[in-house]
Model the fold of this input.
Amino acid sequence: QVVTIEAFAVGISAEYGRFTAASAMLETTDRLTDEFVDPNQRGFLMLVGALRAMAEGRIPPPLVLDSFLLRTLAVSGWAPELRVCASCGADGPHHAIDIRAGGLVCTPCRRPGAIAVRQSTIEHMIFLLAGDWENVLDADETVMHEAGRLITDTMTWHLERSVRSLHYVER
Done:
């Protein structure tokens, strides 16, 4: 027998932005648990927490989604390196991210295809990963958008295909 403990449908379906972001979280979880990662309680609890935050609507949906995606990458063992060079381990700050290398890269390790990134975007991603909502909400729109794009690209790289519902998320 199954008993519903908490339903999120009303809060999530009340707004298109929440609905599309929640759909992206669910599709990502489905893809990961299907092919790459064994389902586990930690991942389930992260999903429930993110859906709860989405339904409450106090945090903008793209930020809840970005934080969920980063944390999901971390639980899967794919968190981008945001403090030291992903290739050689040199201490930062670094100003380029190479998704293939696994995160930030220093100038000597930077390969073609690495993306220049602002320090404020890196800090924003660190705050998203930590759930530091006070600092996350203080970021400007450009930083939020750039971080969202990098997070989406990182997830796509590891899944080896895109999450279709991410294309509908309004940023």
